[in-house]
Amino acid sequence: MEKNMEREDIIKKLESDLSEIKTKNDLLQVKSMYLGKNGIVTSLSAKMKEIPNEEKKEYGKFLNEIKNEVEEKINLLLNSITERELNEKLLSEKIDITLPGRKIKTGSLHPMTRVTEEFEDLFVSMGYTVYSGPEVESDENCFQKLNIPKGHPARDSQDTFYLKDEFERFLLRSQTSTAQARAMEENKEKGPIRIVCPGKVYRRDEDATHSHQFMQIEGLVIDKNVSMADLKGTLELFCKKILGEKTKVRFRPSFFPFTEPSVEVDVTCFKCNGNGCSLCKQTGWIEVLGAGMVHPNVLEMGGYDSKVYQGFAFGTGIDRFAMFKYAIPDIRTIYGNDIRFLQEFDRKDVE
Ligand code: DAH
Asked: What's the CATH class of domain 111-345?
């Protein structure tokens, strides 16, 4: 009876102690108050030796029960505090996944790459293949096989970079027309050819509209029954697609050693629509392409029978088109690698 009272008192006190607990630390203190070395329940066990032998068994049972009950109540609270603390932690560390992410800075295509790809896409859609040749080229492919023998005055305008060797056999190509010689040479069956060759070329030039390194694209079509009409149709389409449908195209007779007849192609000035302005030097026209029917000598040197096959060729500066298209006043900015200039062409958001 006395033990029961004691037990009730202990449990009541425990319950009231537990009711004030806020943190895990408080609870651990209470735990040691009851179950620790000098704790309330522990000191009850110490009384065992005062208990008469015949009551010892019952007292033991009582001790066990009270110990279990105290432990159970403490653990129950411990679990709920642990869970509450964990929830609070999770809540305070919550990540808001609805926040917009930080943009990763990426580069964008160089304006020259853009224009080159635009040209390539257009010609590929007309059945051409994109061909690429080396930038270090032989004198033979760059000049001789294009009907420009040693000493020919046409070399002067391309006064260029030869590699050091006493016979001056190799140079940095001065025109992508070298692709003509290469493509004919490589076509062992001497069948039809339809290629465009974009790439870098080198000349000893340097001012606002000329750079020692610039880009050209060369086109070559060889087949039976190819005429000047094919050349005109192709280049007119090319100019309109790249510069706008309203563009007018004009063909003027000209001279290139590797074509006969040769033409130069003008388009109406896109700045003034042909009315005359500083860009077109008040003429209303801007020259954009050189072209012509492949010279029979060039066909023969490439291994083609010029009585059976004809062809037309054309070449233009890609930089020139880029300058017109994006109103770039100085060619040197294209190669200057100034990030501010390049960012002007970052169209990722609209593409
Ligand atoms: N290769 C010439 C140049 O660099 C451009 C050219 C003119 C290419 C006439 C051609 C052509 O294919 O037929 O000035």
From this structure: alpha beta
Contact 214, 331 (CB under 8 A): yes
Domain parsing of the chain, residue ranges = 2-92, 111-345
Q: If you measure from the C-alpha of residue 190 to the centroid of ligand 1, how many angstroms do you get, rounded to a whole number?
A: 22
Which among 145, 174, 175, 238 is the best mutation to test ligand 1's pocket, defined by most ligand atoms within 8 Å of the CB?
A: 175
Q: How far apart are CA 239 and CA 291, in angstroms?
A: 13
Measured by CA distance, the residue closest to atom 13 of ligand 1 is: 291
The mean pLDDT value for 244-271 works out to: 95
Least confident of 16-30, 63-77, 90-104, 150-164: 90-104
Question: Which DSSP state fits 159?
Answer: -
CA-closest residue to ligand 1 atom 2: 315
Other residues' Cβ atoms within 10 Å of the Cβ of residue 272: 14
Rounded Cα–Cα distance for residues 229 and 289 (Å) = 16
Alpha carbon nearest to ligand 1 atom 12, residue: 314
Q: Which pTM was predicted?
A: 0.71
Parallel, antiparallel or unpaired: strands 310-317 and 213-223: antiparallel
For 47, other C-beta atoms within 10 Å of its C-beta total 10
Residue for token digits 């070559």? 220
Query: What is the position in ligand 1's atom list of the atom closest to the CA of 220?
Result: 12
Write out residues with Cβ below 6 Å of ligand 1. 175, 177, 218, 256, 259, 290-292, 313-315
- Separation CA 27–CA 71 (nearest Å): 12
Instruction: For residue 181, give the nearest of 53, 311, 56 by alpha carbon.
Output: 311
Kindly list the distances between the CA atom of residue 133 and the CA atoms of 118, 181, 195, in Å, as whole numbers in the listed order.
19, 10, 12
H-helix or E-strand spanning residue 73? helix 53-92
Q: Which atom of ligand 1 approaches the CA of 256 most closely?
A: 9
Q: Assess contact for 289 and 235: CB atoms under 8 A.
A: yes
Q: Per-residue pLDDT for 315 more than 80?
A: yes
Please choose, from the candidates 306, 137, 126, the residue with its C-alpha nearest in 3D space to the C-alpha of residue 231: 126
Q: How far is Cα of residue 61 from the mean position of the Cα atoms in its chain?
A: 79
pLDDT digits (tens, 9 = 90+) for 277-296: 988 899 999 999 999 999 99
